Amino acid sequence: MQKELSYTIEEIAQLLKVSKLTIYDLVKKGELPVFRVGRQIRVGADDLDQYIQLQKTAPSQKIKAPAHVETTVPEFPSESIIISGQDIVLDLLGKHIEEISGLKTLRSYAGSLNSLLSMYQGKGDIVSLHLYDGDTGEYNLPYVKKILGSFPYIVINLLSRKAGFYVQKGNPKQLTDWKDLKQKQITLVNREIGSGARILLDEKLRIHQIPAKSIHGYSRIESSHISVASAVATGTADVGVGIEKAAKMVEVDFIPLTIERYDLVILKTPENARLIQAVKESLASAALQSEIHSLGDYDVSQMGKVLYETL
């Protein structure tokens, strides 16, 4: 059997120099055929080439999936939803949503702020957020209210978790507070712009009046909590900001500095009524709460609580 080359959604986004949400949107519209390997979505190289050629030769025509894949590609357009965020609990949530509603769940790993901005632009179905506002000390709602504006939406708590510093074993630099980042001998590893961890760091630097340019390594970017923790573990950085769970997966110490609230945002539209109900039922499920609690390092005491809802 000849081996067929295929790509992940992230790889295609990089090849075409667009966001992953743009690729997911093409999938949902049926313009880019896909297949599943377990829970992962992949696109065949031939199908990608054909999509590109069709865009070149007939940009005004609606692109349709090639006939040879129609019997094997899931029907995405009206029966799939996109959940943004990186935490593993979102995979568990997606599974329960599928069981309750029959909707297919796809994942986008974009950061909190970028996902919220995409929702404003009409992309994405469930956005997960952990955005700290330094002026109010509150998570998420200040950003949602400003960005979504007059959109109708609902904000529901998923969980709470600890965030803080990843440091090398034994904490040789003795980093215990945000103000310790003023030490000029510190080498930082950062997260990408728009991620919750990056916004938390930037807000704390602003509050403590620490210029970002004064911190060595501030411009070094990693795209996940695990990658940040790994950079600290290997000694290429002294400190990074992230959540407790990743520290236990990598050989680093964790210095807790805040409890962050991790919430879900969904637009309140007639089309989303079924989705909102499925999310509420999933979050109220003892089975899902038990699965998340068993992972450790998560507080599910407020899980499912509606924190804000427009009329």
TrEMBL record:
Gene3D superfamilies: Periplasmic binding protein-like II. It comes from the Bacteria. Residues 7-53 form the Helix-turn-helix domain. InterPro entries: DNA-bd_dom_put_sf, HTH_17, PBP_domain, SinI_DNA-bd. Residues 100-283 form the PBP domain. Pfam families: HTH_17, PBP_like. This is Helix-turn-helix transcriptional regulator.
